[in-house]
Amino acid sequence: MAQTEEYEQAREEIKLKAARIAGERARIARWDLNVAVFLFAILIIVIILLFQDFGIEIVAPIALFGLVMVWLMGWRRGRQLYQSFYDEELAKLTRELVEGKKKVEEAIEETIEEKIQKALRERRR
C-alpha cells in the first residue's frame, strides 16, 4: 500500500515536471521564422502606407490587425507545441523512473546476494 502511494506521488511529480518543461519549451519555440516574416511584412506594409500619405486612421488598424494576428499565430503554435512537448517529456520522465526503479532493485538484489555469499563463506569456516 505504501508503494502504491509512493508510486502515485512520483507519478504526480512527473506530471508536474513534464508540464513545466513542456511549457518552457513551447514558450521558446512559438516564435519561429514564420512569425518573424509575417511581422516584417506588416511593418513593410505600414511603412509603405505611411510614405503614400495614408492617414493614421487607416494605417493604425492595419498595424493593430497585424500585431493581433502575430499574437494569435504564436499562441496557437505554442498550444500545439505544448501538447507534443508534454507527451514527450512525460514519456521520458516515466522511462527514467522505471529505469531508476530497476537499478534500485538490481542493487538490492546484489546486496542480498553478497550477504548470502558472505554468510555461506562464514558458515564454511
Structure at a glance:
With 125 residues, the protein is mostly helical. It has one domain (2-124). The chain contains 3 helices and no strands.
Structural topology:
Blueprint lengths: L1 H28 L3 H19 L4 H69 L1
Q: What descriptive keywords fit this protein?
A:
single chain; 125 residues; mainly alpha; 3 helices; rod-shaped
Distance between the termini: 42 Å
**Sheet with the most strands, sense and barrel status:** none
Total beta-strand segments? 0
Which series of helices and strands comes N to C?
HHH
Poorly predicted parts? none
- Report the C-alpha radius of gyration, rounded: 29 Å
Number of domains: 1
Q: State the share of residues found in helices, binned by percent.
A: over 70%
The total of helices stands at 3
Report strand %. Answer: under 5%
Structural class: mainly alpha
The 3D shape can be described as rod-shaped
Mean pLDDT: 79
Can you tell me about this structure?
With 125 residues, the protein is mainly α. It has one domain (2-124). Helices cover 93% and strands 0% of the residues. The chain contains 3 helices and no strands. The longest helix has 69 residues, at 56-124. The mean pLDDT is 79.
